[in-house]
Amino acid sequence: MESNGSRKPLPRLLVYFGRYRGRALAALAMMAAVSALTVVFLFLVNKLIDDALGAGASGTLTGFGKSPRAAAPLIAWLQRGYAAMRSAADHAGLPARLAVPLLLLATLVAKNVCSYFSEFALNGIGIAMVRDLRNDAYRQLLRKSARFYSQASTGDLLSRMLSDVEQIQSAFGTRLADFAQGVLTILLVLVYAFSLNPGLAFGVFVIAPIVLLPIVDNTRRLGKAAFSSRERIGGIGALLSETLRGHRVIKTYGVEEFEADRFAEANDRYFRVTRRTIRLQALNSPLMEVLAGIGLVGLFAYAGGQIEQGRMTVGGLVSFLAAIMMLYKPLKDVTKTNMALQIALSSARRIFELVDSETEIADKPDAVDLGAFSRAIRYEDVSFRYGDDWVLRNLDLTIRRGETVAIVGPSGAGKTTLVNLLPRLYDPTEGRITLDGVDLKDATLASLRRQIGIVTQDTILFDTSARENVAYGRPDAPEEAVRAAAAAAFADEFVDRLPEGYETRVGEDAGRLSGGQKQRLAIARALYKDAPILILDEATSQLDSESEALVSRALANLMEGRTTLVIAHRLSTVRRADRILVLDRGRLAESGTHAELLTRNGLYRRLHDMQFFVEKDEAAEARP
Q1: 99-108: long-range contacts (C-beta < 8 A, 24 or more apart)?
Q2: For the segment 456-511, what is each residue's pLDDT rounded down to a tens digit?
Q3: In 246-313, where does DSSP find H-type helix?
Q4: How far apart are CA 299 and CA 196, in angstroms?
């Protein structure tokens, strides 16, 4: 599922982020306020200590060396603000020893209020991005062809849609908030540190590359390990999905230990690659702390000399150290965000691989809407293959409006493939199919599929109410129409007995219903759709005699007045078809009515006789 777009996911993620630029700008303003208030807090700490030690005169700023030109506006702003605060305190009769602590408290409260709003806003953007991305991915998933689903792993798709998307939310929500706040704080605190003592601040700049270069290299390796980890969790999801679907077979064959070993092996592969990811993650913080600690020892020695020579006050040193300590969390947040971003980009690649994988079946730009079906369906020299294996070869046939056509043949003859081509679940490899003379490839998918109803042996019902399953996709369906469709399918008698009638949820995979009840509800769904073309794929093959009788009556109601294609292994169910097509190895071997085909002594006769003798033997064995 790889594509060029999936290899550059960051610009595409930024498109999703850009949809919320107004909220992002508001969050950025709050973050700027947090960073500015952090510097104010550091300055007030300086003043509080120097005033307590008597190191500074009223209204002046102490602890500063000769400030770089870039820091001058910041220093001037702090001095003016402090002078205004002292003047206001003097007029109010508030002692300086109380004014500065109260201002410190107010600054701390304001800083954290701004921090709350900025984090809330950015986390909201992260959640909104996940919602939009998941919706877009799901819509793309619905457009994929049947071939895509036959080749894809269910567990891997679930992992991409759920787990991988959550990684993006983490990176573009909490982590992005930490990153943006961290960068702003680092910039302002560094300017403040330079204003306090350029020599000490320059030392920080020397240390920073020593700290960051090993971390950048470690993060690059982390990104590769994270991608492998996401791939492994997709494999575990696929295995779990198989187990949940096949639990009856697993128990019947007594292979629980075999499956447990298979799962343990996949889980161990995930464990090994994830352990490497965790090791790389765990290395970042200690690596940064040790390297920074080595540099700080040198800075402390330099600062001691500055105080001895009278070039720096104790308050200035404490304020500088507080500034450096305040850099620790932002620097750590920036590196953690980098790691989270690498993991998120790995997840985004997997999601965009899914989104960008080729959609084989799609509308042409100039596709036309089909009118109501009125004449005939034609297969014109149609061939189809899976990979290198031809499933259908040079098939020519016409199905007239109102005709019931049965399709029979040995297993693997191409029966299901033939009918799957009609709603364009696949497209022919060669040849074409027309509906009233219009090539299906030239028609819109919506107008084509509106004309087709389907009932299969593997009945698909959804974990919603019985009413919603009958009126599938039409939540505003009239109650009378739903009940009429259910009655025609002989489903009303059991639906009315359900705990909440038509509003009863049928459960996952309709687990609360029997096989016959599922089929009748599926027939009711097809009746409600009222499509002119009907596909019945082995619709009664897995039912007991009593259920089959009810379902057969429901099918008779459904088929009335419709063009019907019937696939059946049991030939007794197709005797009344207007025409029977006999497929063999992808080719049309015979065609005719039941009586005509029996007289020809061909493949149909052989299949009929084989089933007749099998059914006769089964009936004899059933007699006491």
Answers
A1: 100/44, 100/47, 100/48, 100/51, 101/48, 103/44, 104/41, 104/44, 104/45, 104/48, 107/37, 107/40, 107/41, 107/44, 108/41
A2: 877 888 888 899 889 888 888 899 999 999 999 888 989 999 899 999 988 877 77
A3: 247-252, 256-308
A4: 14
CA 601 to chain centre: 55
User: What are the E-state strand segments in 401-532?
Assistant: 404-408, 430-435, 438-439, 452-456
Distance CA 181, CA 239 (A): 42
Q: Per the domain annotation, does 514 fall within a domain?
A: no
Helix H or strand E segment including 105: helix 96-143
Stated pTM of the model: 0.69
- CB count in 10 Å sphere of residue 3: 14
Q: Are residues 58 and 88 in the same domain?
A: yes
Strands 587-592 and 579-584, by their bridges, are antiparallel
Return d(Cα 157, Cα 606) in angstroms, integer: 44
Residue matched to tokens 């550091």: 42
CA distance 614 to 608: 10
**In a domain? residue 252:** no
Same domain for 217 and 347, yes or no, is yes
CA separation (Å) from 341 to 141, 171, 231?
A: 25, 6, 17
The DSSP symbol for 412 reads: T
Q: Is the dihedral of CA 462, 464, 470, 474 positive or negative?
A: negative
Helix (H) / strand (E) element for 366: namely none
Do residues 171 and 125 make contact, with C-beta atoms less than 8 angstroms apart?
A: no
Report the domain count for the chain. Answer: 2
Is residue 238 within 8 A of residue 156, CB to CB? The reply is: yes
Residue 3 resides in a domain: no
Task: Please report, for residues 299, 326, 430, 437, 552, the alpha-carbon distance to residue 303 in angstroms, rounded to integers and kept in the order given.
Answer: 6, 18, 83, 90, 94
Per residue in 367-377, pLDDT (tens digit) is 999 999 999 99
Q: Is residue 76 part of a domain?
A: yes
Alpha-carbon gap, residue 494 to 488, rounded angstroms? 13
3-state secondary structure of 80: helix
Residues 348 and 374 in one domain: no
CA distances from 285 to 170, 275, 440, 469, 599 (A): 19, 17, 61, 54, 84
- Same domain, yes or no, for 28 and 105? yes
Residue 138 pLDDT grade (very low, low, confident, very high; cuts 50, 70, 90):
confident
80 and 15 in a common domain:
yes
Q: Distance between CA 548 and CA 538 in Å, rounded?
A: 12
